[in-house]
Amino acid sequence: MVLSVAEALGSRAIRAARFLGKMGVFLGASLARAAVPPYRVHNILKQVHFIGVKSVFVIVLTAAFTGMVLALQGFYTLRKFGSEGLLGSAVALSLIRELGPVLSALMVTGRAGSALTAEIGIMRIGEQIDSLETMGIDPIRFLVAPRLLAFLLSVPLLTAIFDVVGMFGGYLVGVKLLGVNAGVYLGQMESSVVLGDVTNGIWKSLAFALLIAWVCTFKGYFARHGAEGVSQATTSAVVVSSVLVLVCDYFITSVLL
Amino acid sequence: MQVGNDGIRAEPDTRAPEEWICKPCSVGPYTGAKREPVFRLVGVEKTLDGRKVLDGVTLAIPRGQITAIIGLSGAGKSLLLKHMIGLMKPDRGQVLLDGVDINRLTREGLYETRKRFGMLFQGGALFDSLTVFENVAFPLREKTDMPEGEIRGKVRAILRKVGLEKAEEKFPDELSGGMVRRAALARAVVMDPEIILFDEPTTGLDPIIRNSILNLICRTYHEHHFTMVMISHDLPDIFQWCHHVAVVHGGKVVEVGTPEEIRGSVTPFVRQLVDGDIAGPVQMM
Q: In chain B, what are the domains?
């Protein structure tokens, strides 16, 4: 009995180690292909358009309402302490340090990451990836590397858009709706945000971009068992990426602070 | 010439029959045994999900001939093909291409070697985001420095040969099964490979389209004398379209020979397979 439990645990541990090793090797291969020329500029731009440009609308919408609700909550909380004047800095710092990178990453995961997994997964089960291999074309270089680079380019830019739109949303609610002085709101924002906050946000968004691209391409690349397999891979990619973004956010924050 | 939706001629073909009727057996007597084989699989073993799917396969593929690999579904035929092109690595054994073990090649060496191959997958494996033209042009654009004008000329010529000149702007999901296979065949031959592997090129097609695909494969063979390896379930028809047959069963090659030899085999399993008998060593129900 004890032996069989130990055996089962050991077997699970070996499987987990193999899986993590496979993911590690995949990430290494993807980064190596992405770093070494020739770069597929056309492919990269096409992916930037899909991941970045097509995500702008959802990012703007999410950012505006996030900024607005932050201002609303922040105003009533700060008023208890007679510190409504700090609303600008509260909104700006929350967005730049935390909410901008995290929410942008989550939105991009849902919109582009899932589509990416499904697209690569369908290519896998339709033998299109094997077909690339038989033509002597490295599928990781052809499919994964351009998407990885596109994520690394797009997510920080989307985060920047999120931050700016979020602060504007906060301005609308804080200044126009709740009557905070515009000069105080913007002045507090300017005086409290330092370059370090912005660079921290950029580092976070780069890390999240790498994470999403890695998980979503990996899940699609190794999808199996037909349409159901692709559907499971897509769900799993979104769930794992989202959870990892939040987990990594904690660790990155604790290192950067 | 008028071509229907599926690319099948809508009016009688005015060409002389010898121009388009292909009879591979008419190329002469089987001489594969005298030649150095292009492929040699030696004791290839592969286990997947705890099941031994290839159990010491030893097989030689003659150069410049059409070899058919036949067997029951799930016998490991497609895996065998994937091992030949290096898409899968055996747990044991060797896959020798002109005497070189392809599993010992570096990645770059393997990709270089694959320039010698064309492969037609069971479902065509066309890139669904590209048109028929772009699919066929894809290997030329990716793997050669050929000017775009030459690429266009070459692709159009091949599409004309497979009867898809009017479908070049269509996407794979707009094509019928037969058209997909023909487009895939065009893509497989566009790089002028020495070896073409076919994974069930006619499965799921009606008899007329099936014969048109086999005819096309055969015509391509007559023009270029590529080495061809074809997995097929079209028994006994396939015997008319190949020079050499290998029978796979239980992860092993159980018999090889000319179509006549396989047709006349006395091995119980081969007899059952060729005749399609329910009774025999393999009981399905």
A: 31-127+193-275 (3.40.50.300)
